[in-house]
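Here is my example:
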Amino acid sequence: MAETIQLGELTIQVRRKAVKNVHLAVHPPEGEVTLSAPTSIKLEVVRAYAISRLSWIRKQQRQFQEQEREAPRQFIERESHFLWGRRHLLSLSYQNKKPTVTLDHRQIQLTVRPGSTTEQRAAVIHAWHKALLHEVVPPLIQKWEPTLGVSVSRYFLQRMKTKWGSCNPAARSIRINTELVKKPKDLLEYVVVHEMVHLLEPTHSDRFYQILSEHYPHWREARAEINALPLSVITKEEL
């Protein structure tokens, strides 16, 4: 049965996991709060920790409320779309052939069949985004494997709501949020490096940040920048 902690009007979902530390997280866009805790720790101890971090939780929730929101895209003529941190205008045309997307300077040309729906146009753009990331992510992995002394067996591209990336150390795989195609390329590199460091240290321990600081000393600036953008990464704090 799922556990919850109720602090006034705030409900915190408690998830039991095989972890050593308590992980408190505030999720965009609505500021939902979850707490991952070791299976052996008592709920009273978890509750006390949540209470001690209440001001931090409120601060993160306020930041999400004040943060710029990217309005849902309709994929229509002259609509603004971001690619690698730069704004582009969408040019839409209808033809009875396989849908295509091309980039011409600051304009994205989307060609679809007549009568296509918003969802169908979105799917074409998302497939294009994945193709662009497939061109960029492998070289980044290859660049950092010898530096970090790790080997990535596989990477996956997936649209995610609460994380820019994730890592499965046991499978030596990393997962990258396709929304990163909209952000500057240096932020994509930061996320790739962050997830690859998890192959050396699965948790956000002191050792994790020591390794990250050694090889990517500007990670704090990159994290601050990516957290300030729409679709902000999950915010975590550890006990």
